[in-house]
Amino acid sequence: MSGIQDRIAARVVPHIPPGAVVNLGIGIPTLVADHLPDGAAHLQTENGLLGVGPTPLPGEVDPDLVHAGKKPVTARPGASFFASSASFGMIRGGHVEVAVLGALQIDAQGRIANWSVPGKPVLGVGGAMDLLVGARTVVVATTHTAKDGTPKIVAECSYPLTAQRPVDVVVTDLATFSVRDGGLVLTDLADGVTLDEVRAATTAPFAVEPAVSRA
Predict the structure, then answer these.
(1) CATH class as words, domain 2-213
(2) What distance lies between CA 171 and its chain's CA centroid?
(3) pTM for the predicted model, two decimal places
(4) What are the extents of the domains in the chain?
(5) Residue 108 contacts by C-beta under 8 Å, 6 or more apart in sequence?
(6) Do you know which PANTHER family this protein is assigned to (predicted)?
(7) Which of 209, 203, 166, 168 is nearest to 189 (CA)?
C-alpha cells in the first residue's frame, strides 16, 4: 500500500503552485512533503508550524516536532512556530492557498466525507472543515477504492459530509478529476490505467476530457 500511497502523493505535486502556502492533511497528503522539490512550497500544519520539511530519517526524529496527526516532521531553515489559534486564523482568513486532504468518499458534486464513519468512534473533525471553507484550492489525495474494493467516488456520500463546499481536484491511484460546473471531469489517467478501469471503479457520473478519451 505504501507504494500506491507514494504514487498518489507524487501525482499531487503538479497541482501545487510554486511558492504556495500549503496545508497537508493526515494520511496520504502528508507524503506530498517527500515529493516536493526543496523550496517549492511553504507547508503549514494546524498545530502551529509554517515551513514543514520532509519526513525525518529514523535517526533524525525530534519528538517535539510533529504535525497535526502527531507524526514526526522536520522544519526547514527559517520555519515559523506559533499557536494553534494563529494557525487556524491563517486557514480561516484565506491565507492557505492549497489544502491537500484525504477522503473516505467523494460525491458527484465533488463534496467529500472524511471525518466520521457511522458506528465507529468519532475522534473529531480536526481542521478539515475549516480547510474546506478557508483554503483557496482544495486537492483530495486518496485511493480510488476502499480496502474492501468498494468505490470511493460515488453518486452520493453515505458518510457525513465534511462541508458543502466541493473540492477542486481529486487525485487517486487511477486518475485525476477536476470539479467543474458542479460535476466531475476526468482529466488524466495514471500510467497503465485505462478509461474502462476507471469507469468500473467509479459509481459517480463524470465527464471525460477529449484528450483522455482518445488515450
Answers:
(1) alpha beta
(2) 8
(3) 0.94
(4) 2-213
(5) 154, 155, 156, 183, 184, 204, 205, 206
(6) KETOACID-COENZYME A TRANSFERASE (PTHR13707), SUCCINYL-COA:3-KETOACID COENZYME A TRANSFERASE SUBUNIT B-RELATED (PTHR13707:SF57)
(7) 209
**N- to C-terminal Cα distance for the chain?**
27
Of these residues, 46, 60, 97, 156, which one is catalytic? 46
C-alpha cell at 72: 514526526
Contact (Cβ atoms closer than 8 angstroms) between residue 152 and residue 144 = yes
Is 46 catalytic? The answer is yes
Q: What is the pLDDT along the chain (215 residues), one digit of tens a residue?
A: 579 999 999 999 999 999 999 999 989 999 999 999 988 999 999 999 999 999 999 899 999 999 988 899 999 999 999 999 999 999 999 999 999 999 999 999 999 999 877 777 666 677 899 999 999 999 999 999 999 999 999 999 999 999 999 999 999 999 999 999 999 999 999 999 999 999 999 999 999 999 887 66
